[in-house]
C-alpha cells in the first residue's frame, strides 16, 4: 500500500546512540538537593539588619546548579561574499546612518509594541497597574496579618529567588509569584507555618502562567523537603486562584523595565549588558523589601533606572528629558523608592538576605552586585526641570 511505511533496519550509529542513551538512563543523574526554608518564627521583626550583626537563619541552597559559562550575547553578523559587477552596474553602497537629534527616543524593544501604538499601550499598562484588583494593600502586614511580619516575607522571597534559579525559571515567574503572595496576604490572614506553602503554590501558579515547561507539583514538594504534601500544595493553589478571582496577569516591574532600558542605556562608559544586569539586580532587590509594596511597578522600574544610571555615572545627573517623556516621572517622585533600593544595595536594609546578592555576584551576570556606589544620592539630583537636557 502506498500509505504504509516500509520498515528499515537501524543504522550502526543509531544503535550506538541508543545504547549510550540507555546506559545513561540506567546510571541516572543524581537528584536535586532540596532547598529548605529556615524557621520563620525565629526571625525578629526588624526591618533594618546591619550586615555585621549575627544573621538569622536563612534558606540555603545546597546544590547550586548555576552555569559557569557567561551568558552568550546573540549577535548578528554578515559574512562578506564576492559578487560580480557588470560594466554598467555600480556596486551597492550602504549610505551612512544619519542621526536626527530631534527624533523621539525609540522604545520599541518588543516587536509587539508597534511604534504607532506605543503611547496607547503604555497608557493601558499604567491604567492596568493602578487597578485595585491587581494591587496589594500597602499595609497588609499591619492590617490583615497577625502571625506574618515583614521579615518573614523577606526570607520567603529570598528563598524563592533560589528556587527560581534552581529550576531556571524566567524572571517574570518570580515577579508574578511575589505579586500573588502580596495580593493573597492582603486578603487572608495566614499562619507562619503555612507561609512557605503559600510561596511554592504561588510559584507553581506563576510557572504555569509563564513557563513553557513548568515544574511539576512533586518538584515543589521536594524542594521544601516534603514539608507539604501534593494535596496541600494543590489545595493552596486553588485557594489562591479563588482569592485572586483568577486575575493573574498585569504589568510587573520587569514589564516597565524592558521599556525604559532602551532610552536609559546611554552611558558610553559601560556596556548595555552591564546596565541591563544592574537594573535587574536592583529590581529583584526591591522584591525583598516590604516597604516597596506600596509603590507602583512603573515607579519602581523608573527608580531602578535612576539609581543604576547614578551608580554608573555618579557625577552626571541620572535623569533627562527623554526619560521624563518616556516614564512620565520626575526625579522628586522617585526619591523615596530610589533611596529605599539604594539602602538595600548597601545592605543598610535586609542585609541578612543574600540569595539575590549571591546570584548577581556570578560572572554570567558580570558581577554587578559588586558595583561600587556612593553612600548617598545628592539631593540636587532629585531636582529636575522638564527643559533640562
UniProtKB/TrEMBL annotation:
Biased composition (Low complexity): 48-60
Keyword Ribosomal protein recorded: no
Pfam family, one: Cyclin_N
Recorded superkingdom: Eukaryota
Any one GO biological process: cell division
Annotated stretches, region: Disordered: 1-30, 46-97
Domain Cyclin-like positions: 158-242, 255-343
GO terms for MF: cyclin-dependent protein serine/threonine kinase regulator activity
InterPro entries: Cyclin, Cyclin-like_dom, Cyclin-like_sf, Cyclin_A/B-like, Cyclin_C-dom, Cyclin_N, Cyclins_cyclin-box
Residues of the Cyclin C-terminal domain: 251-374
Residue stretches of biased makeup (Basic and acidic residues): 61-74
Sorted UniProt keywords: Cell cycle, Cell division, Cyclin
CDD domains the UniProt entry points to: CYCLIN_AtCycA-like_rpt2 (cd20506)
Subunit structure: Interacts with the CDC2 protein kinase to form a serine/threonine kinase holoenzyme complex also known as maturation promoting factor (MPF). The cyclin subunit imparts substrate specificity to the complex.
Family according to the record: Belongs to the cyclin family. Cyclin AB subfamily.
Protein name (record): B-like cyclin
Organism for this UniProt entry: Arachis duranensis
Lineage: Eukaryota, Viridiplantae, Streptophyta, Embryophyta, Tracheophyta
Amino acid at each position: 500500500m502506498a500509505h504504509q511505511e516500509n520498515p528499515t533496519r537501524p543504522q550502526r550509529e543509531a544503535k550506538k546512540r541508543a545504547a549510550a542513551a540507555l546506559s545513561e538512563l540506567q546510571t541516572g543523574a543524581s537528584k536535586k538537593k532540596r532547598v529548605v526554608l529556615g524557621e520563620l518564627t525565629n526571625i525578629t521583626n526588624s526591618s533594618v539588619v546591619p550586615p555585621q550583626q549575627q544573621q538569622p537563619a536563612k534558606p540555603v541552597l545546597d546544590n547550586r546548579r548555576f552555569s559557569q559559562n557567561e551568558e552568550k550575547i546573540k549577535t548578528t553578523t554578515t559574512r562578506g561574499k564576492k559578487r560580480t559587477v557588470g560594466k554598467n552596474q555600480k556596486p551597492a553602497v550602504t549610505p551612512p546612518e544619519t542621526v536626527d537629534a530631534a527624533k523621539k527616543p525609540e522604545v520599541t524593544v518588543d516587536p509587539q509594541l508597534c511604534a504607532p501604538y506605543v503611547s496607547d499601550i503604555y497608557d493601558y499598562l499604567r491604567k492596568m497597574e493602578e487597578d485595585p484588583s491587581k494591587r496589594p494593600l500597602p499595609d497588609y502586614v499591619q492590617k490583615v496579618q497577625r502571625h506574618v511580619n515583614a521579615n518573614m516575607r523577606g526570607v520567603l522571597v529570598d528563598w524563592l529567588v533560589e528556587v527560581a534559579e534552581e529550576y531556571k525559571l524566567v524572571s517574570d515567574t518570580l515577579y508574578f509569584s511575589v505579586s500573588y503572595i502580596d495580593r493573597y496576604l492582603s486578603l487572608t490572614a495566614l499562619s507562619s507555618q503555612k507561609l512557605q506553602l503559600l510561596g511554592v503554590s504561588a510559584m507553581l501558579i506563576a510557572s504555569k502562567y509563564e513557563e513553557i515547561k513548568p515544574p511539576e507539583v512533586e518538584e515543589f514538594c521536594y524542594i521544601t523537603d516534603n514539608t507539604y504534601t501534593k494535596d496541600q500544595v494543590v489545595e493552596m493553589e486553588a485557594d489562591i486562584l479563588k482569592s485572586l478571582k483568577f486575575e493573574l496577569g498585569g504589568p510587573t516591574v520587569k514589564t516597565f523595565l524592558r521599556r525604559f532600558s532602551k532610552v536609559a542605556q546611554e552611558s558610553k562608559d559601560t556596556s548595555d549588558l552591564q546596565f541591563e544586569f544592574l537594573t535587574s539586580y536592583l529590581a529583584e532587590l526591591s522584591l525583598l523589601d516590604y516597604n516597596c509594596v506600596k509603590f507602583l511597578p512603573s515607579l519602581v522600574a523608573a527608580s531602578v533606572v535612576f539609581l543604576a544610571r547614578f551608580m554608573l555615572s555618579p557625577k552626571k545627573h541620572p535623569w533627562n528629558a527623554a526619560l521624563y517623556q518616556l516614564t512620565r516621572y520626575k526625579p522628586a517622585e522617585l526619591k523615596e523608592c530610589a533611596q529605599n533600593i539604594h539602602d538595600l544595595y548597601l545592605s543598610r536594609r535586609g542585609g541578612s538576605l543574600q540569595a539575590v546578592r549571591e546570584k548577581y555576584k556570578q560572572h554570567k551576570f558580570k558581577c554587578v552586585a559588586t558595583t561600587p556606589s556612593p553612600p548617598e544620592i545628592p539631593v540636587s539630583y532629585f531636582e529636575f526641570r522638564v527643559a533640562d537636557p
